[in-house]
Write a structure and sequence with these properties.
Length: 443
């Protein structure tokens, strides 16, 4: 079966036609999310995907992207050939698949998609399942020393979990995707702990660990290492911190380039995981220092140069919004904060607004052009319930809201764009085009 517009020549020879392939992936399964390992396991078997490289699997409500970025950066600094699979992407699908710090090319992705397409036969795969198989297919052919796989949703039934991990990392457990994972931290924790494996290390960066995580680790015999009892961190000075664990300590570490004091928890989970894999992937102290300073995650408290300050953050649940608010409070006080805000309607919009209400002076809300996107009117209703509608304006699109913020903000103000990956991506594209236009005019 081929997508409309594809030819056997396209599929057989990997001609880069990535947009066509991605449309094909979207059409293969009736549901965007359909948690199951059966479909992936069957196609994996047909592809004979049994990688020999160590796999680090990372799950969690928040902090996954940062932890993955730090793991990748440290391992690259140590000279290893590293694969990284993450989701979702901001601007290009290629962002999801990185080999040795570089995004996979259109050609490579199309070749991988063709291999998965041939192997799946008449069976269906979701967009994420297809992409996961394609990523591991590429990794298996790249001669890698290590691979980092970020869970898409939950853990137990996520496509990434079709591949056995050598070290599982659980960054946090909080409320999100409750329609799929359950409406309690016990239920959500159990789903996320599904990435643990018997006899293999499992690193947990959540201080308040749900009992379900502990019980599952004990039941299957995973070697659980918890932040607090087994490893942790101390902020010794403004520019240095110390990692401690039952296996030793590391002194004089630089604060991660990623912003926020909470990143020390993610960095500690990263180091604890590497500590468990030191017999296969030893890293030196200088590798850790360099990796912490070089790790970057676009769209996570990303501050663009220039004035007014422009801050982009994909925070889309209350837990992430609280971290965003903490970062904003830590910045030097300036003028007003204009928030370009839109979210998906199946998220906890009210919880995000409550977490951010003290940090925003004017809410510029817009709908997202996606089936799950909340309309500007829906967002205004939530702001009204929170007593904030007098400080809000509605716009037909994120781009229009962003343009308005740029026109109204003074040099000492802040423009904050947040609420979802879609929100940040649309504003980033516009910000990039406006920057290019400004540069052209100045020339």
């Amino acid at each position: 079966m081929m997508a409309i517009g594809m030819t056997s020549n396209n599929v057989g020879h990997g001609v880069p036609d990535l947009p066509n392939w991605l449309r094909h992936l979207e059409s293969l399964h009736p549901k965007t999310i359909d948690l199951s390992l059966d479909r992936v396991a069957e196609v994996r078997h047909r592809l004979d995907l049994n990688p020999s490289f160590p796999i680090i699997t990372v799950a969690g409500t928040n902090g996954k992207g940062s932890t993955c970025a730090m793991l990748e950066a440290v391992l690259l600094a140590a000279g290893y050939r590293v694969g990284l699979y993450t989701s979702p992407h901001l601007l290009r699908y290629n962002e999801r698949v990185r080999i040795n710090g570089e995004e996979a090319s259109d050609e490579a992705l199309c070749e991988a998609f063709a291999a998965v397409e041939q192997a799946r036969g008449e069976g269906s795969l979701t967009y994420f399942e297809f992409g996961t198989l394609a990523a591991v297919w590429l990794f298996a052919r790249a001669g890698l020393d290590a691979v980092i796989l970020e869970v898409g949703l939950g853990g137990r039934l996520d496509a990434v979990n079709a591949f056995d991990t050598d070290c599982a990392v659980l960054t946090s457990v909080d409320f999100d995707h409750m329609d799929y994972l359950g409406d309690s931290r016990l239920a959500i924790g159990y789903e996320k702990a599904g990435i643990f494996r018997a006899g293999k290390p499992a690193v947990c960066g959540e201080f308040d660990v749900p009992y379900s995580v502990l019980a599952h680790a004990e039941k299957i015999g995973a070697d659980l290492r918890r932040i607090g009892p087994d490893f942790g961190y101390d902020g010794l000075e403004p520019n240095q911190w110390r990692f401690t664990s039952r296996d030793g300590l590391r002194l004089m570490l630089p604060y991660p380039a990623l912003r926020g004091a909470y990143q020390l928890g993610n960095a500690s989970a990263c180091l604890a995981a590497l500590e468990q894999l030191r017999s296969r992937l030893p890293v030196a102290h200088d590798d850790i220092r360099r990796g912490l300073l070089e790790a970057v995650v676009p769209g996570r408290f990303q501050v663009l140069p220039g004035r007014p300050q422009r801050i982009f953050d994909v925070a889309h649940n209350p837990h992430a919004a609280k971290a965003l608010a903490e970062n904003l409070r830590a910045m030097p006080p300036t003028g007003k904060t204009f928030a370009v805000f839109s979210m998906l309607r199946d998220k906890d919009i009210a919880g995000v607004v409550r977490a951010m209400k003290e940090q925003v002076d004017l809410w510029l809300v817009a709908g997202i052009g996606q089936p799950r996107g909340a309309s500007a009117e829906e967002l205004l209703r939530v702001l009204e319930q929170e007593g904030l509608v007098k400080h809000a304006e509605a716009f037909p699109s994120v781009a229009e809201a962003y343009r308005h913020a740029c026109a109204k903000a003074a040099e000492d103000d802040k423009i904050l764009v947040f609420g979802s990956f879609y929100t940040v991506a649309e504003a980033m594209i516009l910000a990039s085009s406006l920057s290019d236009l400004k540069n052209q005019c100045e020339k």
